[in-house]
Amino acid sequence: MLELDDVTLGYGARTVLRHVSFRVRSGERWFLIGPNGSGKTTLLRAILGLIPPRAGALRMDPDRAARERIGFVPQRGRLDATLPTTVREFVSFGFVGSGVKRPEREDHLLAALAQAGLSGLAGEDFEALSGGQRQRALVARALVRRPHLLVLDEPTEGLDVSAEQTFLRTVVDLNRSEGLTLLFVTHKLELAARFASHVALFDAGEVLAGSRATLLRTEEIERVFGARVTLSTEGEA
Amino acid sequence: MIADFLASWSLFGTTYLVGLLIAALLALVGIWVVARDHIFLGAAVAQASTLGVALGLWLGASGAAARAGWLESDAIPALLAVAASIATAWSAARAAGSGRESEESVSGWIFLVAASLPVLLMAHHPHGLEEVERLMFSTLLSATRVDLVVFGALAGATLLAVARFRDRLLLFTLDPEMAAAVGLRASLWAGVTAVWLGVVVGLSLRVSGLVYTFGCLVLPGLIAKTLCREVRPLLWVAPGLALVAALLGFVLAHRYDLPPAHTTVALLGFALAAAWAARAVRERRLAALS
Question: Which end of chain A is more exposed for a tag (fewer CB within 10 A), N or C?
Fold first, then answer.
């Protein structure tokens, strides 16, 4: 679905990531982990086509990872709190640039709301939602495009543990039921240990990528994060 | 009252129509100012237009006009008003994008510079300060048939653009990060909306003055934002409110011999206060029910 071959990325004179190579196959759950400022979001921006690689090749499957078939979930929906919108309207903005025809939109919208567990809240004011519900509304907005690849940029940041677990359950269930491929940026190791099939560890401008069991070992984590942490890598796969 | 107003149509018909068109057009464009909560930017853009007009008048009266007669043309202040508006909207958008200065900081700086420079430029001009005061005071009486055509064309083009690109424009306004992620070119959309805001405000200010321009730019959008539950209806509710307020304002102004621009803006101001009060009552009722 997606292949990075010796990719280098940066902004202006600054190189952020060097020699990044890994391949994402359909249906995998990739967790991109690293300290703040390590280049995780830069890589996402490249995958979304917002910045071109300086070197190397970033190849996307034209059928499964075309722009119209990528769903993006940002850290926060940047809405002015005084601006009125309902959950239904908010989610419907996901159709922009999707190529979904107007007659099909109602079905897509209802399905996306149901998948995100928001069917009963469609008519509610967006501002009335809890933090966890808002994040699921962001997922629904991405799902109306019927994506093959869902890109999530630290979507559980600021959520309490219960809302975070509900959110992760929602996207992992989508991965299992719909075969949706996930690219999930986080700096929370415990989430990757539990939900990832593969991880990419960001360390000093380089990326170490592989299966969860291989990479979430105590030595690797200590090298990247500078702290000795032992995780259970049994996960939920 | 209505019959008197209709009887005045033969004399002031062009003024009324231009005023109505400007009100609806500014209210529609103002959605993008209100939706991003950049009210002060609206004030800065309108004030910058005043500076553009003053600069045009100053050039026309300066020694440069003796060598280049075209500087005395009436079109120069209008063009400079539009240019100043575009430059303000554009530089504020760029400032927000760079992250070094907030849009509010740049807007505040422009507002204050644009408020003080026209007075300095016109201080020794025979009728300069009168012209600056006229712009600040707001009057629609100088509207011409050419203005009618210009604002009719602008309103038509704006309606077509909104009909064609509604959701793209709204998504870019509400959530630029998401808009970029789905393939919208943020810099292009920022540039187009800044230029359009500058053109509409710059041209409106020359005809209708600061109070009417700024009032119609932000007040209908703010009222609509308070009354509506969704974003898309703002696009017809705000221009509709502006049209109703302007028409009512013109009728009352004619009946009681008041300035129509100020009457309209005062009505919109009272309507906003009423909308806020209605929302507070509604929220209290909902809180009591829950």
Answer: C
